[in-house]
Amino acid sequence: xxxxxxxxxxxxxxxxxxxxxxxxxxxxxxxxxxxxxxxxxxxxxxxxxxxxxxxxxxxxxxxxxxxxxxxxxxxxxxxxxxxxxxxxxxxxxxxxxxxxxxxxxxxxxxxxxxxxxxxxxxxxxxxxxxxxxxxxxxxxxxxxxxxxxxxxxxxxxxxxxxxxxxxxxxxxxxxxxxxxxxxxxxxxxxxxxxxxxxxxxxxxxxxxxxxxxxxxxxxxxxxxxxxxxxxxxxxxxxxxxxxxxxxxxxxxxxxxxxxxxxxxxxxxxxxxxxxxxxxxxxxxxxxxxxxxxxxxxxxxxxxxxxxxxxxxxxxxxxxxxxxxxxxxxxxxxxxxxxxxxxxxxxxxxxxxxxxxxxxxxxxxxxxxxxxxxxxxxxxxxxxxxxxxxxxxxxxxxxxxxxxxxxxxxxxxxxxxxxxxxxxxxxxxxxxxxxxxxxxxxxxxxxxxxxxxxxxxxxxxxxxxxxxxxxxxxxxxxxxxxxxxxxxxxxxxxxxxxxxxxxxxxxxxxxxxxxxxxxxxxxxxx
Length: 525
Prior knowledge:
Layout: H1 2-7, H2 11-104, H3 111-120, H4 124-133, H5 138-149, H6 155-163, H7 182-195, E1 197-198, E2 202-206, H8 210-229, H9 238-251, H10 259-268, H11 275-281, H12 288-297, H13 301-311, H14 319-338, H15 344-368, H16 378-397, E3 465-466, H17 472-475, H18 479-482, E4 522-524
Antiparallel strand pairs: 1-2, 3-4
Helix pairs in contact: 3-4, 3-5, 4-6, 5-7, 6-7, 7-9, 8-9, 9-10, 10-11, 11-13, 12-13, 13-14, 14-15, 15-16
């Protein structure tokens, strides 16, 4: 019995043993957790290094591809130098003979012949005046100006001398005709693109000398300084901004460090249809996704579609949902305007135009991008027909169409006959002092995730365009907020009268009088 008692362990020893085991267990658990944490950390580092390595390999492949392409382009240019020189000499001889012939003959009365005559004589002032006086012949001017500029010995100098009267600032002593002439600058700069193209390589290589680029840069810097003095991008006139961007593209003087500034300018006049192509030509390929997102948030879905198609992002930003969102916003805006009590006359006038104009703009967008299979036009045509019938019925019940200058309400003041015009002629190239519009998220669109995309090469050329929509002002606001906050249009618009859908107000497309049409039409047909 005594031996059995002596062999039994002491309780304190047992407790110490268990405590040691517990300590060892905790140490093992701590070591296991630490090992797992280190293992996860090193696995994360390994994955990160793999991703970075893959990214570097991708960038290297892209760099090799661009390098090979540039080297091939340089090789082609080197091979084409002799042929280009021979063609240039032959062209000079041809122009000399044509100039001698024109001097000996009577002055031609037709517009194309007169354009060529002024170009061959390097008479930039007469050439500019002829274009201004022939504003109604806009289609013929777009066709003939590039051909006429090729008759000039130095097309780049000739065009810069011509536009120097109004760009970068208006230097005319007597502003006759009155108004902005930025459309002339855009027309000439666009026409100059083909005149500067290499005869062998085409638009891939522009024949712009170093002296010409230096002068073009001085003009661009002067415009930027003038813009900053007059309030920045927010107060810049659309025609001036368009001329500036086209000036950069035509003479290939864009600066990589200023691409964010170019992006702001492009977005500020994104409703002009040249803007997507100009954005690509200015090297904004990597910013196109941000531009599309910003336009969607502003309620400019149609403009966003144009930018998406130009940059190849139509799969990331499907056009049909954006078109439906645009129509939904237009319908809401028209309904809210019809409920206005303070301005019943103007509200009724606007309501009858808002939704039909939106439908026509959507139909035009569908036709341009060939979306008939995804978005049939039948329902839109029926809706448009019903709206036109309702409008006609209202006219019948009211005893005929209302006078354009009827009072906005029973006791309101009579609006001036030219209330919609911009009449600030004190300085033609000045910038309006209107406050920048406040844009709010469109209530009917979906947010798209940002993802990289393959950039497309920029190119010169003649671009189409389209004009802004005056209906865009209410669409940029959520339906819940329009009642609380007055609708603020991003561009000045007439209080009563609006231009019709099918016509141009002054024969020069969007270069009319600074007022955007009520629909998104083609800026250049």
